[in-house]
Amino acid sequence: MFVIAIVSAKGGVGKTTVSANLAAGFAQRGRPAVVVDLDPQNAMQWHLGGLDPDVAKGISSLNASRTRLAGVMHQTPFDVALVPYGSCSEQRRQKFEATLEAQEDWLRNKLLSTRLPDQTVVILDTPPGPSVYLKQAVRAADFLLAVVLADAASYSTLPEMEALIASYTAGSSARIGSAYLINQGTQRQLAQDVLSLFSEKLGQRMLPFVVPESEVVEEALAFERPVVVHQPENAAAQSIFKITDWIIRGLPR
């Protein structure tokens, strides 16, 4: 099992879209893939075929029972297993978050007890900014992928993201790798200038791939499909495949 936490300091960067497509990309490369939605917005399901909200219990329901993670894992049409956040009341959400605050390794222990196949890649989709969910994801992860846009607002959040990573990895005995992915890249001059700033600041921690802006990505979401399935020849999909291959090359043998 290899766990990747998809993180961001601000919303609106396409983090959930990237998470869903990476998972589908790993599945198409023959790797068992699991996505865990740690965002109370519970939106991941709409990227992977949708689930019946009346039957799709999620990770937030584990607080109220002894159900294992596998008990709220749902198969999607894209060979990706999905653990949704799940619909829950405000009271249940607060109770769930209290559990996560009290047990720092709750998520990692849940993943380990699920006994997934050795080759499984687990994608953790987190809400933007600091949260108990981000802390759980960082402590459970083997690798952190921070998603940013090629704009000044994203560049200005870089110190915040770096501080969050440092804070949540402090005290951990495991060495966690991290990298930054530029999403929705364009050829506009300002975007290219910001890309240069990111490259100068991050060096090799900036992925050598940019996911280009594409209307086809939004079209795929309208059909509740990852773009790597909806139109695999699209430039954005091809970038996702390059990223999955890059990650696979670095996985433990």
UniProtKB/TrEMBL annotation:
PANTHER family: P-LOOP CONTAINING NUCLEOSIDE TRIPHOSPHATE HYDROLASE, PARA FAMILY PROTEIN CT_582
Gene of this entry: yhjQ
One Pfam family in the UniProt entry: CBP_BcsQ
Protein name: Cellulose synthase operon protein YhjQ
Lineage: Bacteria, Pseudomonadati, Pseudomonadota, Betaproteobacteria, Burkholderiales
Protein species of origin: Undibacterium rugosum
